[in-house]
Design goal:
This protein has 294 residues and is α/β, with parallel strands linked by helices. 36% of the residues lie in helices and 17% in strands. The strands form four sheets. Strands 3-2-1-4-5-6-11 form a seven-stranded parallel beta sheet, sandwiched between helices. The radius of gyration is 18 Å and the shape is globular. The two termini are 36 Å apart. The chain binds NADP nicotinamide-adenine-dinucleotide phosphate.
C-alpha cells in the first residue's frame, strides 16, 4: 500500500484529505498544533523548523501531499519571512530531505495570479500581488526546478473543518446567519471554488492512476460567481435565512493585504487531458450540503 504524508492535516483541506485517503492508503498526518479530532497517526511538526529528518523518518512516504501553509493573507503580509519559510522554503526542505523517488503533490492557489487575469490557465504567467501569493509561488518554483515527479494543483477551495477549533469561510457564513449577525460578502470578487471533498476525489484519481506527471493543473469549479452570490446560494441550499447577508466591496478593505478581485481559473486543460468532469457551482454547493451536519 502506498504511504502518503499529508501536511496541513489540522487544516480544512488537509484534515479531509487524511480522512478520505486513509480508506485507500497508509496515511501519515502532520500539522502545527494538536487538536481533539486528530487522527491516530499524527505528528505535530513546525514546517519552519530547520530539521525535517524526524518527520521524514517517521512517515517514510512514497508521496507527500503538501497542503500545510499560512493561509491568512494579512498575517502573511505582516510576517513575510515566516510566510516565505512555511509556504515556500518548506518545499526546498522536503526536496532536500527525501529521496528522488518520493513524489510531491503541492496544493497551490489562485493567488499566484494578478487581478488582471480572468479564468487564468496553466500557461498564464504567475505574478502574485501579495506576500501569500508570492510565498506559494516560491514553493512552486522549487518544485518546478527539481528533478522530482510532481503535480502542482492550483485551486480555490471551500468546505468545512473537521478540526472543531477552526472556522473557515463557509462556517463563518453559516454560523453568522444562524446567530443573526450581520455580515458582508464581496459582490466585486469573483472565484471558481471546488469543495474539499471534490478536490480530494481528484487527488485520489491522480494518485490511484499513477498520474503524477510533473505538471501544473488548475482544478476548480467550471463556472464562476461572486462571493456574495456564493453565500446566498449556499444558505438557500441549506434552508437558512439569508437576511443578515449584505453586499460589500473589497474596496472597503484597503488597509489589508491586497487581494485579487478576479480569482477565477480555467480548468479545461485538466478536464480534457484526464477526461474528468469537474463540478459546477451548484455541484460545489450540493457537496457542502451533503457534508454539513447541523
Ligand atoms: N482556503 C482557501 O481558500 C485556499 C485557496 C487556494 C489554495 N489554498 C491552499 O490549500 C491548502 C490548504 O488550505 P486550507 O484552507 O486547508 O488551510 P488552513 O485551514 O488554514 O490550514 C493550514 C494548515 O497548515 C498548517 N500550518 C500553518 N503553519 C504551519 C507551520 N508553521 N508548520 C506546520 N504546519 C503549519 C496549519 O496547522 P495548524 O492549524 O495546526 O496551525 C493547518 O494544518 C494551502 O496550501 C493553501 O495555500 C487554500
Amino acid at each position: 500500500m502506498k504511504r502518503i504524508l499529508i501536511t496541513g492535516a489540522s487544516g480544512m483541506l488537509g484534515a479531509t484529505l487524511v480522512h478520505e485517503l486513509s480508506k485507500y492508503y497508509d496515511v501519515f498526518a502532520t500539522g502545527n498544533t494538536s487538536f481533539k479530532e486528530e487522527p491516530e497517526r499524527y505528528m505535530k511538526f513546525d514546517l519552519s523548523s530547520p530539521s525535517y529528518e524526524s518527520l521524514i523518518d517517521w512517515a517514510n512516504p512514497d508521496i507527500i501531499i503538501h497542503s500545510g501553509a499560512l493561509t491568512n493573507g494579512n498575517f502573511c503580509n505582516q510576517n513575510p519571512s515566516l510566510a516565505f519559510d512555511v509556504n515556500g522554503v518548506s518545499m526546498k526542505k522536503f526536496l532536500d530531505k527525501t529521496s528522488d523517488n518520493v513524489k510531491i503533490i503541492y496544493i497551490s492557489t489562485d493567488a499566484v495570479f494578478p487581478s488582471t487575469l480572468s479564468m487564468a490557465n496553466e500557461k498564464d504567467c504567475a505574478n502574485p500581488e501579495n506576500v501569500y501569493g508570492k510565498s506559494k509561488e516560491l514553493g512552486e518554483f522549487f518544485l518546478k526546478n527539481s528533478d522530482r515527479e510532481f503535480t502542482i494543483i492550483r485551486t480555490t477551495i471551500v468546505g468545512l473543518n473537521l478540526n472543531s477549533d477552526k472556522q473557515g469561510f463557509v462556517e463563518w457564513i453559516i454560523n453568522s446567519s444562524l446567530k443573526k449577525e450581520q455580515i458582508g460578502l464581496f459582490e466585486d470578487v469573483l472565484f471558481t471554488p471546488i469543495s474539499i471533498w471534490d478536490l480530494t476525489n481528484e487527488i485520489n484519481f491522480l494518485i490511484s492512476n499513477n498520474q503524477v506527471n510533473s505538471e501544473i493543473l488548475h482544478i476548480g469549479s467550471t463556472n464562476s460567481c461572486t462571493k456574495y452570490d456564493f453565500g446566498i446560494a449556499l444558505l438557500k441550499e441549506l434552508n437558512i435565512d439569508d437576511s443578515v447577508v449584505n453586499k460589500s466591496s473589497i474596496l472597503n478593505f484597503s488597509d489589508r493585504a491586497k487581494r485579487c478581485t478576479d480569482q477565477t481559473m480555467e480548468t479545461k486543460h485538466y478536464r480534457e487531458k484526464y477526461s474528468r468532469k469537474l463540478p459546477d457551482l451548484a455541484d460545489t454547493i450540493k457537496s457542502i450540503k451533503e457534508n454539513y451536519n447541523e
